[in-house]
Amino acid sequence: MRKFVQSMGLAWSGISLALRTEAHMRIHLTAALIVTTTGLLLGLNRYEWTALVITMALVIGAELLNTAIENVVDLVSPERHPLAKAAKDTAAGGVLVTAMAAVIVGLLVFGPHLVAIFR
Ligand SMILES: Nc1ncnc2c1ncn2[C@@H]1O[C@H](COP(=O)(O)OP(=O)(O)OP(=O)(O)O)[C@@H](O)[C@H]1O
Protein backbone atom coordinates (compact mmCIF):
# COMPACT_ATOMS: atom_id res chain seq x y z
CA MET A 1 0.00 0.00 0.00
CA ARG A 2 2.87 2.40 0.86
CA LYS A 3 4.48 1.61 -2.50
CA PHE A 4 1.19 2.33 -4.30
CA VAL A 5 0.84 5.73 -2.56
CA GLN A 6 4.51 6.46 -3.38
CA SER A 7 3.92 5.62 -7.09
CA MET A 8 0.82 7.83 -7.15
CA GLY A 9 2.89 10.68 -5.67
CA LEU A 10 5.55 10.27 -8.37
CA ALA A 11 2.89 10.17 -11.10
CA TRP A 12 1.34 13.39 -9.73
CA SER A 13 4.75 15.05 -9.65
CA GLY A 14 5.16 14.08 -13.34
CA ILE A 15 1.83 15.75 -14.17
CA SER A 16 2.80 18.81 -12.14
CA LEU A 17 6.20 19.03 -13.92
CA ALA A 18 4.53 18.80 -17.34
CA LEU A 19 2.08 21.55 -16.31
CA ARG A 20 4.95 23.81 -15.26
CA THR A 21 7.14 23.16 -18.31
CA GLU A 22 4.75 22.47 -21.22
CA ALA A 23 2.59 25.30 -22.59
CA HIS A 24 0.46 22.78 -24.50
CA MET A 25 -0.41 20.98 -21.25
CA ARG A 26 -1.68 24.25 -19.77
CA ILE A 27 -3.75 24.88 -22.91
CA HIS A 28 -5.32 21.38 -22.68
CA LEU A 29 -6.05 21.83 -18.97
CA THR A 30 -7.63 25.26 -19.57
CA ALA A 31 -9.79 23.76 -22.33
CA ALA A 32 -10.83 20.93 -19.98
CA LEU A 33 -11.81 23.46 -17.27
CA ILE A 34 -13.85 25.51 -19.77
CA VAL A 35 -15.57 22.33 -21.05
CA THR A 36 -16.33 21.18 -17.48
CA THR A 37 -17.73 24.58 -16.44
CA THR A 38 -19.87 24.80 -19.59
CA GLY A 39 -21.09 21.23 -19.05
CA LEU A 40 -22.13 22.06 -15.47
CA LEU A 41 -23.97 25.19 -16.63
CA LEU A 42 -25.79 23.25 -19.38
CA GLY A 43 -26.70 20.31 -17.08
CA LEU A 44 -25.32 17.55 -19.32
CA ASN A 45 -26.54 13.97 -18.83
CA ARG A 46 -24.35 11.06 -17.75
CA TYR A 47 -23.70 9.86 -21.32
CA GLU A 48 -22.56 13.30 -22.41
CA TRP A 49 -20.27 13.54 -19.36
CA THR A 50 -18.89 10.04 -20.13
CA ALA A 51 -17.96 11.10 -23.67
CA LEU A 52 -16.36 14.34 -22.44
CA VAL A 53 -14.42 12.76 -19.56
CA ILE A 54 -12.99 10.01 -21.81
CA THR A 55 -12.08 12.58 -24.47
CA MET A 56 -10.40 15.00 -22.04
CA ALA A 57 -8.45 12.14 -20.44
CA LEU A 58 -7.31 10.94 -23.89
CA VAL A 59 -6.02 14.38 -24.91
CA ILE A 60 -4.24 15.09 -21.61
CA GLY A 61 -2.88 11.52 -21.45
CA ALA A 62 -1.59 11.78 -25.03
CA GLU A 63 0.07 15.13 -24.21
CA LEU A 64 1.79 13.58 -21.17
CA LEU A 65 3.08 10.66 -23.28
CA ASN A 66 4.22 13.14 -25.96
CA THR A 67 6.15 15.08 -23.31
CA ALA A 68 7.72 11.85 -22.02
CA ILE A 69 8.79 10.90 -25.57
CA GLU A 70 10.23 14.39 -26.20
CA ASN A 71 12.26 14.14 -22.98
CA VAL A 72 13.61 10.68 -23.82
CA VAL A 73 14.50 11.76 -27.38
CA ASP A 74 16.33 14.86 -26.05
CA LEU A 75 18.18 12.63 -23.56
CA VAL A 76 19.33 9.96 -26.03
CA SER A 77 19.69 12.18 -29.12
CA PRO A 78 20.64 15.77 -28.26
CA GLU A 79 22.09 16.01 -31.79
CA ARG A 80 19.80 16.12 -34.87
CA HIS A 81 18.78 12.71 -36.17
CA PRO A 82 16.04 11.59 -38.60
CA LEU A 83 14.81 8.99 -36.09
CA ALA A 84 14.62 11.62 -33.34
CA LYS A 85 12.53 13.77 -35.68
CA ALA A 86 10.32 10.80 -36.59
CA ALA A 87 9.75 9.94 -32.92
CA LYS A 88 8.86 13.53 -31.93
CA ASP A 89 6.67 14.20 -34.97
CA THR A 90 4.81 10.88 -34.62
CA ALA A 91 4.17 11.52 -30.92
CA ALA A 92 2.90 15.02 -31.77
CA GLY A 93 0.66 13.42 -34.42
CA GLY A 94 -0.83 11.23 -31.68
CA VAL A 95 -1.83 14.33 -29.71
CA LEU A 96 -3.27 15.96 -32.85
CA VAL A 97 -5.51 12.92 -33.52
CA THR A 98 -6.95 13.05 -29.98
CA ALA A 99 -7.40 16.84 -30.19
CA MET A 100 -9.32 16.55 -33.48
CA ALA A 101 -11.53 13.84 -31.95
CA ALA A 102 -12.10 16.15 -28.94
CA VAL A 103 -13.34 18.94 -31.24
CA ILE A 104 -15.80 16.51 -32.91
CA VAL A 105 -17.03 15.17 -29.54
CA GLY A 106 -17.39 18.76 -28.28
CA LEU A 107 -19.53 19.69 -31.30
CA LEU A 108 -21.69 16.55 -30.91
CA VAL A 109 -22.25 17.11 -27.17
CA PHE A 110 -22.56 20.91 -26.97
CA GLY A 111 -24.01 21.56 -30.45
CA PRO A 112 -27.62 20.54 -29.70
CA HIS A 113 -27.61 22.39 -26.33
CA LEU A 114 -26.32 25.59 -27.90
CA VAL A 115 -28.76 25.35 -30.83
CA ALA A 116 -31.64 24.92 -28.33
CA ILE A 117 -30.47 27.99 -26.35
CA PHE A 118 -30.01 30.31 -29.33
CA ARG A 119 -33.08 29.21 -31.30
N1 LIG B 1 17.03 15.70 -32.12
C1 LIG B 1 16.26 16.07 -33.16
N2 LIG B 1 16.54 15.60 -34.40
C2 LIG B 1 15.79 15.94 -35.48
N3 LIG B 1 14.69 16.74 -35.42
C3 LIG B 1 14.35 17.23 -34.22
C4 LIG B 1 15.11 16.92 -33.03
N4 LIG B 1 14.52 17.55 -31.98
C5 LIG B 1 13.47 18.20 -32.49
N5 LIG B 1 13.34 18.01 -33.82
C6 LIG B 1 12.30 18.57 -34.71
O1 LIG B 1 11.88 19.84 -34.23
C7 LIG B 1 10.50 19.79 -33.86
C8 LIG B 1 10.29 20.58 -32.59
O2 LIG B 1 11.00 19.95 -31.54
P1 LIG B 1 10.98 20.44 -30.04
O3 LIG B 1 11.94 19.64 -29.27
O4 LIG B 1 11.09 21.92 -29.99
O5 LIG B 1 9.56 19.96 -29.57
P2 LIG B 1 8.17 20.67 -29.73
O6 LIG B 1 7.40 19.87 -30.75
O7 LIG B 1 8.36 22.12 -30.01
O8 LIG B 1 7.54 20.43 -28.33
P3 LIG B 1 7.33 21.44 -27.14
O9 LIG B 1 6.89 22.75 -27.73
O10 LIG B 1 6.27 20.78 -26.34
O11 LIG B 1 8.66 21.51 -26.46
C9 LIG B 1 10.18 18.30 -33.69
O12 LIG B 1 8.81 18.02 -33.89
C10 LIG B 1 11.08 17.68 -34.75
O13 LIG B 1 10.46 17.78 -36.04
Outline of this structure?
By secondary structure, the protein is mostly helical.
Order of helices and strands: HHHH
CATH architectural grouping? Orthogonal Bundle
Uncertain stretches of 5 or more adjacent residues: none
> What's the Cα radius of gyration?
18 Å
- What global shape is seen? globular
**Category from helices, strands and their pairing:** mainly alpha
CATH topology: Helix Hairpins
For the residues shown, what is the average pLDDT? 97
Distance between the termini: 54 Å
Q: What is the domain total for the residues?
A: 1
Pfam family, one: DAGK_prokar
Keywords: ATP-binding, Cell membrane, Kinase, Lipid biosynthesis, Lipid metabolism, Magnesium, Membrane, Metal-binding, Nucleotide-binding, Phospholipid biosynthesis, Phospholipid metabolism, Transferase, Transmembrane, Transmembrane helix
Binding site for a divalent metal cation: 22, 70
Active site: 63
